[in-house]
Each structure stands twice: as C-alpha cells, then as structure tokens.
Predict the structure.
Amino acid sequence: MEQKFRILLAKPGLDGHDRGIKVIAAALRDAGFEVIYTGLRQTPEQIVEAAIQEDVDAVGMSILSGAHMTLFPAVMKLLKEKGAEDILLFGGGIISEQDAKKLQEAGCGRIFGPGAPTQTVIEYLKDTLPGRRKRESIL
Amino acid sequence: MSDKFDTKVETKGDSKEIARAFAEAKRKWQEDSENSKLKLNRKFTTVSMEEVNPLYTPEDTGGIEEVGPEYLKKLGFPGQYPYTRGVRPNMYRGRIWTMRQFSGFATPKETNRRYHYLLKAGQTGLSVAFDLPTLMGYDSDSPRSAGEVGVCGVAVDTLKDMEIIFDGIGLEKISTSMTINAPSSILLAMYCVVAEKQGVPLHKLTGTLQNDILKEYIAQKEWIYPPEPSLRLIADIMEFCTNNIPKYNTISISGYHIREAGATAAQELAFTLADGFCYVETGINAGLDVDDFAPRLSFFFNSHLDFFEEIAKYRAARRIWARRMKEKYGAKKELSLLMRFHTQTAGCSLTAKQPENNIIRTAYQALAGVLGGTQSLHTNSMDETLALPSEKAVTIALRTQQIISEETGVVNTIDPLAGSYYVEALTDRLEKQAEDYFDEIDRRGGVLKCIEEGFFQKEIADSAYHYQLEIDKGERIIVGVNGYVHEDEKLEIPILEIDESVARDQIAALNKVKEERDNDKVQRSLGELKKVIKTNDNHIPALLECVRCYATEEEIVNVMKSVFGEYVEPPII
C-alpha cells in the first residue's frame, strides 16, 4: 500500500485569513494526504508540539499578515531544538519572492506565493516527502 | 426627500391606471430631485457634447404600457421604494460618491503623514486600517504581537496614538471610517475623546464604525469575545451613538470579507443581509425603536470580477433591505429603509503575477460599484497581493476613481443599466437566491446558530475550493496566472517595506505613556468599567473615562475578557 503522508496545516500569528489554508487542506485531502488543521492563532510552540505529537511528515503554515519573517524562523528554531528538523516546514501567503528566498536559504521548505496552483503544492510534497523522515516508531 | 415613501401601486389596474401611477411617481421624483440641496456643479453632457437626462425609464423607449405594473413594483424611481434604482433621487448628479481609500500603516506619525498626503491628493474621507494586534486587542508590547506591529495597519495602544493619527485634521470637517470590530467601542471612545480635545462636539462627528462582529465569526475571524456579549457591546454602541453622535454610522454590515473568504455573489448578499437583520433584531430586543437606530446602519460590499453580476447584487440588496425593513420590522421612516453602502474592489481577485494588470481589474470593479450606486468607494492598489500599497500605487488607485467620475460620463445618468434584460434578470435571480438562504438560515435556527454550527463557514470554504479547482483545471482563466503567462517575470513595481524599527518605536512610545499617566486613576477607571460590564448598563461612559486617563487597549480588553470570556472557533475544514 502506498504510504499516506501526514500534514499539519497551521495558522500562526494573529491573522484570520483562512481561505487559502482551507483550500490547501481540501486539495491535499483529495490528493490522498492525511490532513490535520490546527485552527487559527496558534503560537509557534503549539504548532511544533502538535507536529511532534501527531507525528507528521510536514508542517504547512499560512501567513497573510506580514509576520512571516518572525514566525517561520521561530517554528524552524523550535523544530530544531526538539530534534524534529526532519519534519518539512513549508508555507504560503502574502510573502514576497525576496522574503521567500531568504527563508528557503535559512532551511525552510518551499514558500508558495499568492495564486500558486494547488497542484504545484501537491507535486512538491509528493516529490519531497518520500524518504525524508526518519520514523523510528514505524521502523 | 419627503417622508412619504409608500408609493401606492395599483398592480391590477388597466393601462390607464398604470400610466397614472407612473406619472405620479415621476412627478414626485422630479420634485424630490429639484428640492435636493445637493447639486453637482457640472455639465451633464456626453464627450460629443450631447445633453444627458438624469434618468431614463420605459417612457424613453417603448412606453410604460409595455412594461406594465412590474416597473413600479420592482424598480420605481431613484429615491423611491423599493430603491432598486438608488437611494437618492438625484444620485451622483447631487454628489459624487466619497472616495475613501483604506489606509494606515506603521506608526501613528507615519499614518498621519499619509492621511495629509491623501487629503491633499483629493481624497474626500478617511478610512483607518489598524494593525492586527489592535484588531485583536493586544498592545504592541505583548508577546502575541511579535512581528505584527504596524504591519497590516497602524498600531494603536492608547489615546495618545489616536491624537497623533488625527493631528492637524479637524474631525468636524472629515468623515472617518474605522475598520475595527471586536474592540470597536474602545476605538470609538478614543475617537470621541480626540474630538473632545479638539473642541469638536460629538454631534458634529460623521463617519462609520465597522463594528460588524457577526462577519468576523463567519469570515474575517478577528474576534475576541463570544457572540452574545459581543452583541451586547454593539447594542450599547447603537444606543450611545443614537443619543450622542446621531450622524455617525454605528455598524458597517460587511459582505466584503465574506466574499474575500471565497463566497459567491449570492452568498455575500444573503449572509450580509442576514447579519443586518440580526443586528436589527438585537436593537429591537434591547428596547430601541427600529426607526431610531436603523437609519445609521450602513453596508459594505465587495466588487468582484463579474461586472454585471456585481451591479445586480447591489440593486437586489437595496430592494431586499427596503422590503424587509418595511414589511417585517415595521420601519416607518424612509431613512430606515435605505441601504447605503461602501464598496471595495476585490482584493482576492488581484494577482501577484503581472501586478500592473491589477490596475485594469480594479478599474472595472470600481465601475461596477459606481453603476451599482455605491455611496463610497475604495479602489485597491496594484501591489496589494505583495505588500501594503506604495504611494505611487495608491495614487493610481485614487486616480482610477477620479477618471470614472470626471471622464467616463457614467455619473451623468442614474442607474443606467436598468431595463437591461440581463441585469434585471440577474437582479431577480440574486434576490431569489438570497431569500432561499434566509429561509435556510431560519430553518437552522438563526444566524448565531448557523455560526455555531459552522454553516456559513462551510458554505464559503466549499465555494472557495470550487473556484480554485476551476482555475487549477484551466476552466477559468486568470490573465498572467494560468493564461498569458510571462516566463521569467521580473517584478518591476516598488514595494513598501515596514521597518523593524516601527515596533521598537511604538513600544517605546507606549512605555512613555505608561510612565507619564496617573496609574492609580487608570486602575480605578478599569475597576469602574468592570462593575458596569457586569450589569446591563451601557458601558460607553465608563469606557470613555478609561480612555481619557490613557488606559491601554489591552488593559481594557483584559477587563472585558475577565467578564465575557474568549471565543474559540472549532477548526472546520
């Protein structure tokens, strides 16, 4: 049987724009992923804790408030501290290409800008996730 | 406008009767038009210098007999029930819509500078955008505010910030719209105290408080307290404003965010009006007379890409509102029946790719708003999917409105698309779809119950997903995104960046206020507020006291949270 990847979708910060993340949730679900959605206004601590507890393969964060340069690094740092940096962190929102580049250089996964087709996100995850996580519990 | 809005229409009459009723309605419209104090000093001619009439009716084509009694029943004359053709008898021939660009960013000082710039560029009203911490009731120094201070709008922590934002701007001369919802009474109180300090009496203030918490639970998701105490705060605001700031719009019932979250035109129309009826019932249940507060309810709609559907939506909205206010809620004043609305072009329709194309999208959307009879308009800037608008982008957006007003000739005649088979059929269809939703909302137990059960949220999310699927499958082409794509596109427009120093400066300013104020007085005023909130008394007077002694927004919100609790949304996907 094909491996079913688990994705945690999260809305950090104060912004309540959840149209994009819900569209992504529906698209990933229809593409065969297992999707967990945190709901709004999660702190980086809450997101990382949920990611570890739910044993996910990737965390997708959606930020439309402009706080991405604070929140992505905060989550990356916490994942590293908890020894969970094999969980892929990716995201999207109102994020300029310049900022996206900076985040990717700092070790973050892909950042999708406004208008990115859902298919691109699905393909990216299908390409990137296999073999990425060391799942001791499963092995 | 006369106080008689009830034009008697003899629907079963013969053609003579119809002609008589039509002539009577027309005579009244002409009279109201001539009596209107508002007159635009302009020539109403085409670019070919031909005279344009203020209004065209069936008389100008096949004659009223061909249309029958339906014309008066469904359309009537501008400024006459059911107001399908507009809320005022002379519409833009009396006064052009208010050009109101939503704006605010960084520190209060920076925002004040942008306001002076916009007013100098010919903008005619202000519209304040607050940052997310302000919208959510956190001060700039809260850990929850990290990375968000001054980013999406201007940061406001205390009265001091509002004093700076409006420095040099006489509040008696300008109408101000404030986009604030969960903590709306706090920002209203700050605005009142700024007026007090400028020596402007409250009854002279004009403007709009968004104050629409229902659409927050449905779409925009910037809530603090649960729905019921939130509605009580709104009832207090309606009562306070009715008695003290009679010219101020107390709620801007907003479809904009519902549409942005992915709703269809029919869903935007239906859910927004359902919210409006819920506020009307809240006012009536609080013991207010519907005619005392309904005239100060205003609306806020989106203008999306589908040109004719949007125009029909505005026309249907006016008709539904007037009919329900009269027939269901027994409103007797004409002003209670008028749906006055602000329009903003659709942010969600803009693309990050080839952003200059957004100027064109926005222009068509703005034109739809004007043809739909909007009272005020915000045109988005081309760079808004990328960042807050730069000065250049915001100027082009304002110029777009000025071109529509001065050059296109569409303001010469009122409701120019009336009688179009397509637009009238669309208007009827949207009205029917909205009525079907009202029935469903009633069946499900009303607006609050539907919010609790996630009905609106699910309907909107489903529509958003279907729309995206259409784009992804190429069934719907968005220029520059999935068609007519530029390979290796390079961004060639300037982007406004918010410096990190904004947060530092704002926190330093907040600390200074905290040092200079009388902290005992602050604590006493907060204690008083808590007492009042626990009773059913109006909380605004106690709130004004807190604001006057520079209590911070978060301090006040925490008092309210301690009594009301906080809302948690069940995550629905």
Observations:
- Confidence is low (pLDDT under 50) at residues 7-11 of chain B.
- Strands of chain B lie at 98-99, 102-103, 126-129, 176-179, 207-209, 248-249, 251-254, 297-303, 341-345, 376-378.
